[in-house]
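The pair is quoted verbatim as follows:
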Amino acid sequence: MLYSSIESVLKENLSYAKIDHVGSTAIPNICGKNIIDILVGVSLDNFDIAKNTLIDMGYCPSERSRTEIYQFFASKIEETGSGDTHIHLVVLDTDRYNEFIILRDYLLDNPDEAIAYSKHKEEILKLGLDRRAYREVKSKYVTELINRAKKNKTY
């Protein structure tokens, strides 16, 4: 599996990295854009080591998304949106890290919410927006989902 190969390479350089499949492809029966989203959680001390390891593996970092606790990587520099692998490198036990897990688990535990999310994404795709506009519209909905998830269950 893709995340186990990423994990094995990271573990050659790090004492610990938590790898999770997140995003639409981690949720059965919802639409996606054929993108695999992998969450890589590491300690703050290991963040730069993990970043450099992912670059050495051929993943393309987006400096635009870089913060002290987060870095986005794509498997292709042109980020085509179909057939790509997206890696979200995040410091463990931060809100940013936890929200990836909360959203995935909430959608897995609530199939009706997952279907509603899928339909929402399909409607956005019909608008023919560019990737940036698509992400902005989707992001608002995702924030609402995360807030509902936090109210419905303790994570």
Notes: The beta strands are 18-22, 36-42, 60-62, 70-74, 85-91. The mean pLDDT is 88.
